[in-house]
């Protein structure tokens, strides 16, 4: 969805909705979203590492798409990596994507995921190519 100023605004996808993601802030430089741990646990009762990577990909990609939309372009993911430092059991996690580089053909964001008390659970980096939209 494009806003009046032609900057793309975040629209949750089906998976984002299933995971309970809520967007708190959005710009090319920073996207912040949160997700409940409840409903996103693995079989040992901990927050699933894949759920954290999924959240990291969402916030990093959204920031990249907002950036790309300023030039009439779109962003497509080309790389993501994540280091899990700890896991959560209850409450919410917050993911903050911060721009590392906002270029005309490539951009990258660091994503830090923390729990309710600010403990870092995961650090991810995502790179997106900036390309022409397909018609």
UniProtKB/TrEMBL annotation:
CDD domains: PaaI_thioesterase
EC number(s) stated in the UniProt entry for this protein: 3.1.2.-
UniProt keyword Hydrolase, yes or no: yes
Thioesterase domain mapped to chain residues: 45-121
Molecular function terms, GO-annotated: 1,4-dihydroxy-2-naphthoyl-CoA thioesterase activity
Keyword Hydrolase attributed: yes
Domain of life: Bacteria
Key words of the record: Hydrolase
GO cellular component: cytosol
Similarity comment text for this entry: Belongs to the thioesterase PaaI family.
Record's protein name: PaaI family thioesterase
The species this protein was found in: Corynebacterium propinquum
Lineage start: Bacteria, Bacillati, Actinomycetota, Actinomycetes, Mycobacteriales
């Amino acid at each position: 969805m494009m806003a009046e100023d032609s900057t793309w605004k975040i629209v949750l996808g089906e998976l984002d909705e299933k995971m309970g993601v809520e967007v708190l802030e959005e710009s090319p430089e920073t996207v912040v979203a949160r997700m409940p741990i409840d409903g996103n646990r693995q079989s040992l009762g901990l927050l699933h590492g894949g759920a954290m990577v999924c959240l990291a990909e969402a916030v990093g990609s959204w920031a990249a798409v907002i950036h790309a939309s300023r030039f009439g372009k779109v962003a497509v993911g080309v790389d993501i990596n994540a280091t899990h430092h700890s896991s959560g059991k209850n409450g919410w996690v917050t993911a903050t994507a911060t721009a590392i580089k906002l270029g005309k053909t490539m951009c990258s964001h660091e994503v830090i995921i923390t729990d309710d008390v600010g403990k870092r659970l995961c650090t991810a980096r995502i790179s997106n190519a900036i390309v022409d939209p397909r018609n």
